[in-house]
Amino acid sequence: MFDRYETGEQAILVHINFTQDGEWEDLSECEMLVSSAGVNTLRVVTGSRKTPLPKYYVGEGKAQEIADAVRAEEAEIVIFNHSLSPAQERNLEQLCQCRVIDRTGLILDIFAQRARTHEGKLQVELAQLRHISTRLIRGWTHLERQKGGIGLRGPGETQLETDRRLLRDRIKTILRRLDKVSKQREQGRRARNRAEIPTISLVGYTNAGKSTLFNRITDAGVYVADQLFATLDPTLRKIDVADVGTAILADTVGFIRHLPHDLVAAFKATLKETQEATLLLHVVDASDERFRENMDAVHLVLDEIDAGDVPRLIVMNKIDCLDGAEPRIERDEDGLPRCVWVSAMEGIGIDLLFQALTERLSGTMIKHTLRLPPENAGRYRSTFYQLGCILREEYESDGCLMVDIRLPLADWSRLQKRESNLLDDFIVA
């Protein structure tokens, strides 16, 4: 077996166009992924097929062309812009005599580079171990055979069996640690739910500008770069929304077409923030020609993580890159904001975004005009001021207090319950 390279800085990129629907990938996106991983592309090998072949994924002739390109360019790694089976990877590695990885392995490598927090590193390691566990065969052929005799008796298992056992043990350990992280996050969510603080989660295709928008709104200083998966570790910050109060804004990892299932499973604790959000801000790169396909890819991932039913507000970002695009709010048939056009980089349209957030999050707000008798006016007036819900107040000649209030429906229900529904008698409008 050939020696495996620890890193692959010089790569041959392979991209095959398939005539079957749903089997294609974007070459330019793959080149951005390779660049984000810090790899230099020496040559791009392209081709067309109807369906992939079991042995090499590509045909025999194309596989030999890839091997010749590796030798000619002295490449260290071959990167396929597709998902390969373990057998296909093994066969291609034997032919090319260098390491071969697929799209999933490339994304996992980028995630491993980006992870900064303890939780993020655990999630990436879990996804990597699950991916590697199916690709152990023939990695230790020189230790494969069990032997007997003096000095050769061992534990009774092959190196492959030992590796699998160690992988299973490590996966169990990581799952226990992530379960503890998940419980801690759940406690935070329960506390926010008790305080009835709305949560807004930023979602969208990778490199759509989520972190730039997050920094523009919160001044959080989150790392921003013009590359895929610049953000990996989630960040939560408080923001103030007019007529709503405090809300929590969460910046999450970007999605991509055919996001590896191992990653979705590993980031379950993080993606829970998206599942249980009050509102999703779907950030879209409006300057991308294929933004509609990217939106569909995000919708598929949201459905996969059971967040497809969460209310969402579309944010068309990067309008500064479009000719004649103006900041505006698009509304649905009910008059609610459906889409906001902004530029997070230039700060254009951010006021419209907050206006849309106010309208979308204040749906549970109620407004009443009360006529409070003199014997109750002082006590209720103090309560309303504590809740910060008084819009206008005026005393009448008979000592009664006319007060306009606006507050969340939950606060009104609690107040009603505490006062045994006595407030209903004072409602004028």
Overview of the molecule:
There is one protein chain. This protein has 429 residues and is of the alpha/beta class. The chain has 13 helices and 14 strands. It folds into three domains: 10-101, Rossmann fold; 195-362, P-loop containing nucleotide triphosphate hydrolases (Rossmann fold, 3-Layer(aba) Sandwich); 365-428, Alpha-Beta Plaits (2-Layer Sandwich). The protein has helices at 27-36, 60-73, 86-96, 103-114, 118-132, 159-194, 210-218, 261-266, 268-275, 291-304, 350-361, 374-387, 409-418, and strands at 10-18, 40-49, 77-80, 99-101, 199-204, 235-241, 245-251, 279-285, 312-317, 328-331, 337-341, 365-372, 390-395, 401-408. The strands form three sheets. A seven-stranded mixed β-sheet has the order 6-7-5-8-9-11-10, with helices on both faces. It has a four-stranded parallel β-sheet with strand order 2-1-3-4, with helices on both faces. β3 (77-80), α3 (86-96) and β4 form a beta-alpha-beta unit. The longest helix is centred in the middle third of the chain and has 36 residues, at 159-194. The relative contact order is 0.08. Residues 1-8 have low confidence and may be disordered.
